[in-house]
Amino acid sequence: MTDVVLTTDRTMMSNHRQKEFLGFGTTGAPVIFPEFVWLWMFAPKMKCDTRGRPWQAPYGLRKLEARLKDQGFDAEIIVPHKLENALSDAKVIIISHHDFFGFGPPSSTFASLFEKETVNARSFKRLMEEPFIAEAKKRGVTIIAGGPAAWQWRYREQLMEKWGIDCVFDGEGEREIVNLIGKAMAGEQLPKFMEMSHNDAPTLEEISCIRDASVNGLVEIMRGCPRGCKFCSVTNRPLRFIPLDRVEQELKVNAEAGITGGTFHSEDVLLYGAKGLEPNPEKLIELNILGKRYYRNLAWAHASVSAIVKGERDHKLISRLEEIIIDGRQKWWGAEIGVETASVPLASKIMPQKAKPYDIRDWPELVKEAAGIMQDVSLVPAMTVITGLPDETEDDVLRTVDLIDDLWDFKAIIMPMFFVPMGMLSQNDWFKAYKLSDAHMELLKKCLTHGTRQGKDILRDYFSDRWYGPLMKPFYWTFINVIEVFAKRGGYWSEPDLDRREERKDRTGAENA
Ligand code: SF4
Questions:
Q1: What is the mean pLDDT of residues 455-480?
Q2: Confidence (pTM)
Q3: Same domain, 318 and 264
Q4: Protein residue with least CA distance to atom 2, ligand 1
Q5: Which of 236, 437, 447, 457 would you call most buried, defined as having the most Cβ atoms within 10 angstroms of its Cβ?
């Protein structure tokens, strides 16, 4: 049996029907349909061997597992539905999550709106309340929680007591977690919270390559982000580009496990190999050719508006990448794109570097130009907008509403998210649904209406790369239709108001004159 068991709950240990974006469904509150339908649609159980070792596991857990094995530990990832046996001899359990309690931006938005705990938070709670976790604790197992949502435990310290969490580790794990687990194995007392500063970030040499497949073929190509947005926890982590030979090593691991499509992970894929904030065409072409050598379908985790515009204006880069990615087997590709706000005054305060190398005053125009480029190359993004930011005015919100009207026919999902106090704004208050103004409601309705309309269009091709696509499509089609019916009946439907937009444009023009 295994000394160190790494695990997480079902919503994380799933490949979301081989569609990474469907994972967002687990951040929803289980309304309209019962929770088991949400789990079936967005987080089916992961296939595993008789010992409970998963076919694919979340990338962060795979990285940690590899690092521990490289350091000589007896460590293994186990799926949550096979944990009971695996824990009989374990000495340490590591539990990682992107959103333990549903406090992340999408989950807290839905939880706050519907006043109901989200699917991911419920699933995690169920895992922690399994009797075999309490039994393992009685036997003296040490439990360490970590991952991108480690900060959430600061708001739930009483649950650390209740569930027997000995230590919460916050930060990049490679360097310190090895010492921490060594201490746990030796029976030493661990600190309740352990936070890594950016100076403790591991070097490239300390980052191990995954040994087994990651969920949906995710492969990290760089860490860190230089843009310094004030609301973001990634801000100012040192930039590290993963060398191509190591990217290839991980692509091979996934391809050999039978994974045919995957995602390059980075806070901005278009900054891979960049000098400063300008894309490096040669490196990006090399990277994407490499990706397509191993995967039939390739996606990018994130890309930035400004790098899309800069790359296309100066080098026709996005069009050149389309020629590599789109072929007879892949019709489109996806990426998450942070828009956050269309208000120049607000953008200048919270994300002054976001438009670089352009001026933040051009931000709304850059977003529209990037949308045009993406439309032309069949890049279908999930765009995020944040509302409830400190110092946000009604006018700021309405400018974002206008931007959504401008993007009405753009094939994309626009995800509204309430502000969550993270990064340099971590001392600020949470934004809650009870604070919603009419302008906020209009923003949420617009996103819902736009998303429902575009979601149906996206669904047409969404499963086209899967043999079972025609069987799955009707379920998701029904899901979107039912949401549309409820939204219309409940007064949550909002088409663009062209008159109001023209009025606002006149007013803004007069103000600027
Ligand atoms: S929000 Fe995006 S662009 Fe801004 S610092 Fe975070 S990762 Fe970088």
A1: 83
A2: 0.92
A3: yes
A4: 267
A5: 447
